[in-house]
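Example 327.
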Amino acid sequence: MNLTVRPRRLRSGENLRKMVRETRMDPSSLIYPLFVREGSGIMEEIPTMPGQYRYSTDTMGEKLESLQNAGVTSVMFFGIPDEKDEAGSGAYDANGIVQRALRQARKDFPSLYRVTDVCMCEYTSHGHCGVLKGKEVDNDRTLNLLAQTALSHAEAGADMVAPSDMMDGRVAAIRSVLDENGFYNTPIMSYAIKYASAFYGPFRDAAGSAPAFGDRKSYQMDYHNSREGIREALLDVEEGADIIMVKPAMSYLDMVAKIKDIVHVPIATYSVSGEYSMIKAGASLGYIDEEKIICETAASAFRAGCDIYLSYFAEEIAGFMKEGKIG
Ligand code: PBG
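Predicted structure in complex with PBG:
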């Protein structure tokens, strides 16, 4: 055959394939989501997320240490309180579970970068992401509570806050309260493009945060929409978001690719609980190769254009990067 152009030429050996690789990754882009709960001496496996645990503040150090040893330098804290109430007061309590975990981590692992999820749903008795007015989430009354939550996190040692509630105007509300209190250098990573997704199912079991009635469709986005996501991202950047997140990751990488060229801040994407659990379940049945699937899904998120990748597999991914399996 007289073929001048042969794309296979550049695939002919491992050295050359790596030389022409378009996507380069390293563990500094990874954030590990960690569940901390009340109590002591607790490390309980989450039934719907095998291999993931709820830690008490005195046991989480073990996980933080192994993450650091693997090269993962950032953790996102999620709190599981014992008590919940209508107003989600555990979220902004100076002695709440996340606040105590932050102080502990700051003391024991000072070089770890501490990010917090800012939301009400783990703390409200009704499981919604804000306070209620009748059966509706009251957007404007929730804003101040979110801002107080972010402030209490910053005061307890959060390096970055990440609002995931999807209330309108929350980035601006958080930015102004942080600034008023001298935290003008604390970045906000906004879950700007967050879809109402069944992929959060296992997380809600882990955090006991499933809504007691209704769903989250009046604040999280409809998954049929794309232009609306661009609007959300632009709005949050205008309000002062330093980083924009797309969530979930796997089924939404079109949004990562799309906003990469539209907003000029770093892009994060969150490979959520359902993505994790599907891989775990498929692998445990022997249907898929866990290691290869983890590598492929992580690489696809970076190929789409994310700068930051949140994953329950962060420690494994860092290991695969070190071994040269991806990256
Ligand atoms: C809080 C929040 C959720 C997740 C991250 N922050 C749950 C939700 O919105 O229902 C999901 C994370 C995951 O599924 O891994 N609002």
